[in-house]
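hey
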């Protein structure tokens, strides 16, 4: 489905049924992402989420011990 950036309507035709704006053809085709980059991003995400949780737990522990 396409999304009209002007009025916010989801549609399946070539032209938005609400405002009549046609979508340029170059925006519809996207090139596939590089597999190496995607793998690096997933590894960074898998490391960052536990690190953020540990950081929050460490701050909470420090606040608890200070009181």
């Amino acid at each position: 489905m396409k999304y009209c950036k002007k009025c916010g309507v989801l549609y399946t035709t070539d032209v938005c049924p609400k405002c009549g704006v046609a979508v340029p053809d170059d925006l519809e085709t996207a090139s596939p992402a590089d597999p190496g980059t995607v793998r690096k991003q997933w590894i960074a995400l898998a490391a960052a989420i536990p690190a953020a949780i540990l950081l929050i737990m460490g701050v909470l522990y420090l606040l608890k011990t200070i009181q």
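The helical segments are 25-28, 35-66. The chain has a mean pLDDT of 85.
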